[in-house]
# Entry
Amino acid sequence: MQKKCASRRALRLNAITRRELAATAGIKFHKGDYRETQDGSPLELDLQPGTGSYAGLFGLSFYQGFQKFHSLAVSGNASYQWQSENPDGYVIGQEFGYGAGVGWLSSLPGTDFFIQSRGRFALEDKANGSTVTATGAHLIDVVPSVHCRWFERLSEAISAAVPVYRSVNELQVTPSYGFSAVLRYDLTMWKDPASIDF
# Structure
């Protein structure tokens, strides 16, 4: 029992003092039809199941905990998405994402609180070289969240997205309030030999 409590304290101390920097990269393949029609007329691309194009995804994120400042933590991220031209000559505008936030690693058992500002800036789409006027947007949300660790490897995060800024060109469909719940289980892929019991 004492060993388990000590392990949890060490895990929490690591969460408070750790520093992380991560980079991501990937490719989104096109799936789904992008030429659906309704009553003989083609649907707008944002209402289609697919896009007909590939996308390159790139991101950078960081996390820093500060034990000296009442268990304060800060985080930030940035992302970029590039879209290829689909067979119909349509190019979805490049998209930039960014976010920054602070967190309080509370004294409550396994419970932490975070609040983040999250933004998305999208350029206008192009159709056969011409700008599509009802595209392009700048959206900013405030995202409060609660993170709960039930066991050493099992945790849950609950968050809500509250819109604070919307700037769109002409009439567009944009997300409003959002809510999410994530259940996470950490798999240990390697273990420090010094921590192995014999």
